[in-house]
Design a protein that fits this description.
Radius of gyration of chain A: 23 Å
Shape of chain B: elongated
Order of helices and strands of chain A: HEEHEEEEEHHHHHHH
CATH class of one domain in chain B: Mainly Alpha
Largest sheet of chain A: 5 strands, mixed
Helix content of chain B: 55-70%
Oligomer: heterodimer
Distance between the termini of chain B: 104 Å
Number of strands of chain B: 0
CATH architecture of one domain in chain B: Up-down Bundle
Strand order of the largest sheet of chain A: 2-1-5-3-4
Chain lengths: 268, 150
């Protein structure tokens, strides 16, 4: 009763008092290759609501304060994987990080993901990342012609379900301290996408991919620091997937569950 | 007539010659030796520091008494080899991660040299240890030696 009275009272006194925007300070690591020799930090104040995302803050800077700020984003809803960046020292998607989940009493530090060549501001060259992605042959390898469905049981599908969620944002690979050292390591994202096909019962290229990842720069360089699992915006258990691949290499095969489907013709 | 190249060349694994995959065996060694070392080291600490009168029991005679038994010689040789190679391999991976070029080679050689040196010296001591060497004067060997009991 009294709550309602207070709410009505305050709304009549100050309309929309409860949704006033507040000021958030962003400190963004800027780099313009045509001007700067080294990246430098620059701070911006933006008016934000608690429900806004870091991407909205970046938009406000770019659209209203400094149009030279460069960053990638496409869908802005956590599906395309374009806007992975380092927010307060952790790799996050700017479009999935809410302002209210950050400590806004302090400035928000935003920089490009690490370990890949910096091109401008928050944009890095993703080519080394996609190169190791291509190296693990991320496509179905099957000898039979696609004339009918390739049937798979629920249990067989469940084995690689987690790794189908990858959006190739590079948050995991660019959070990996082994990848930072020399960039030769395949990286968590490539191994996750290899996992997606190695453990797919319809695929016949598992042995090829296990051989590729048995390389000097393959899964054995993983130090299980769990940075990748912590960074993944899709919640993929990346380190577990890498361990699955290690176990499959030691076994010599993926060890898939047998098909439990009984193919009885459906009677009409 | 133009011929069209195969859409993708098949991957030829680097291990086609079936040479030993050191990274894989190194990884397996770290796990296997780690489990053994947990048993060996805690067994060592328990026997040396806890059983009987505990840490006060350790002197030359205590060590000589342990090494009179082949069981403890095998135990200590196993601990020496497993621990030094385990530690050396760990250092190797750290160096491979963080050092580059000539510095990496120098550090790897240093680690290998110290591991091999310590294993050779330690194994030499453990296999040839004799608390009462023949012909040694009584004031240089412990009191329980035959030369002092005469």
């Amino acid at each position: 009763m009294s709550d309602v009275a207070v709410a009505r009272d305050s709304s009549s006194a100050m309309p929309e008092a409860s949704i006033e925007p507040f000021t958030v300070t962003l400190i963004i690591r800027r780099f313009d290759p045509e001007v700067d020799a080294e990246p430098h930090w620059q701070d911006f104040d933006v008016k934000m609501y608690a429900t806004d995302r870091v991407l909205d803050a970046l938009h406000q800077v770019k659209w209203e304060q400094d149009g030279t700020l460069s960053f990638r984003r496409s869908c802005a809803h956590g599906v395309c994987g374009s806007d992975a960046m380092r927010i307060n020292g952790r790799n996050r998607l700017a479009c999935k990080t809410l302002i209210k989940d950050l400590d806004i009493t302090k400035p928000i530090y935003i920089e490009a993901i690490k370990g890949l060549p910096l091109e401008k501001d928050l944009i890095v060259d993703m080519e080394p990342f996609f190169e190791s992605y291509r190296a693990i042959q991320p496509f179905l390898i099957a000898s039979d012609k696609p004339e009918k469905e390739r049937i798979q049981s629920v249990a067989q599908r469940a084995v690689f379900d987690d790794t189908t969620k990858c959006i190739l944002c590079a948050a995991c690979t660019s959070s990996c301290p082994v990848f930072w050292t020399d960039g030769q390591y395949f990286g968590p994202a490539a191994i996750v996408n290899a996992h997606r096909f190695i453990f797919d019962s319809r695929d016949e290229g598992s042995q090829v991919r296990l051989d590729i990842l048995n390389d000097k720069e393959g899964v054995w360089r993983c130090r299980t620091t769990f940075n990748c699992t912590e960074a993944c915006p899709r919640g993929i258990e990346v380190t577990k997937a890498i361990s699955d691949v290690k176990a499959a290499i030691l076994r010599g095969n993926p060890g898939l569950p047998p098909s439990d489907l009984t193919l009885t013709p459906v009677s009409a | 007539m133009t011929t069209i190249d195969a859409p993708r060349s098949p991957h030829t694994p680097a291990t086609a010659t079936r040479k030993v995959n050191w990274e894989k065996w190194g990884w397996i060694y770290m796990r296997a030796s780690g489990i053994l070392l947990v048993v060996l080291i805690f067994g060592h600490l328990f026997v040396n520091l806890f059983l009987g009168t505990g840490v006060r029991a350790i002197d030359f005679a205590f060590v000589a008494g342990k090494w009179a038994s082949p069981f403890w010689k095998v135990w200590d040789v196993a601990m020496l080899w497993l621990a030094l190679i385990h530690g050396g391999n760990g250092m190797r991976t750290v160096i491979n991660d963080y050092a580059h070029g000539r510095g990496r080679t120098v550090l790897l050689v240093l680690v290998a040299a110290s591991v091999i040196g310590l294993i050779v010296l330690g194994t030499l001591v453990l296999t040839t240890f004799d608390p009462c060497p023949a012909g040694a004067p009584g004031n240089l060997v412990p009191s329980f030696c035959p030369v002092n009991s005469k």
